[in-house]
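Sequence in, structure out.
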Amino acid sequence: MNNFQKLLIGAVIALIIINGILISVVWMRRPGHLKGARAPLAPRAKLEKRDFLRKELDLDRRQMKEFRELNQAHKRELRRLNLDIRKQKRALHRAVISQDSTQVQEILDTLTTKHRIIEEKMAEFLFAINNEADEKQRRKLLEILDKAIPPDTPPIPQE
């Protein structure tokens, strides 16, 4: 082998190594791979998530149709309320920075009202689901809701 062939083989090996490194960097930086980021759900996982209550509560077709309609309306209302809350929080930050305590108090009152409305909407949603459910489904729904709320946390120790 002459020097040119050795140089050519070395260059090819170097290019393969560089290509492998670049591919791994691109792979590691893809969306959802970063630490703490959630990977997008696969279509099957989305279907399972959407049908979670149907499966858990064993809803029939009529109940499932009613649930979908309730859920869509509920999500629309919550999106609107959460958007309002984000706007109010931005206004709160500006009021705090400008040291306008009167405006801060007004915004806090508005935020408290919005959060109360969200809890009322959640209760209405659960009432509607409860009205469509039979007794066995109500017991199962209560189990699901109890699991969704974490148990009381122990008090923080005083130093």
